[in-house]
Amino acid sequence: MVVEDEPNIGALVRTYLERSGYRALWVRTGEEALTELRRHPIKLVVLDIGLPGIDGFEVCRRIGGQVPVIMLTARDEEPERVAGLEAGADDYVSKPFSPRELTARGSERAVGSGLGLAIVKELTTAMGGGAQATSRPGGGAEITPTVPVPDSAPSG
Length: 156
Prior knowledge:
alpha/beta; five-stranded parallel beta sheet; globular
């Protein structure tokens, strides 16, 4: 889920995520984000800090580690980064940002958390030509290579 009140940035992030094979829900306020978290099995949140109403720090606290959170914000000073991480964010990306890097960080966070390559709801889309993510009942995803994977185990 993308939580961003600036239309140009929200649309850009959603477009990049969708081009990368994700289904991305975009909301514009902290209140909407918390509502959608109750409605949908969200797998990752890309969260702005400066939101109308409930700010991103409070949204992150209320998420409480249920899903990985990447803070995406113009606030790039160390105190803000530390506050975001202390509020429960898993990563922090400063604006201006690279949409490709953000997408890669999102994939890493989702995989690293054991949630599979998914942003919102179930995902059954080929990922980057190298893997297929298929949702499982009850959450999570099964990652299946679509290209041969070399055996990394030591021989002998």
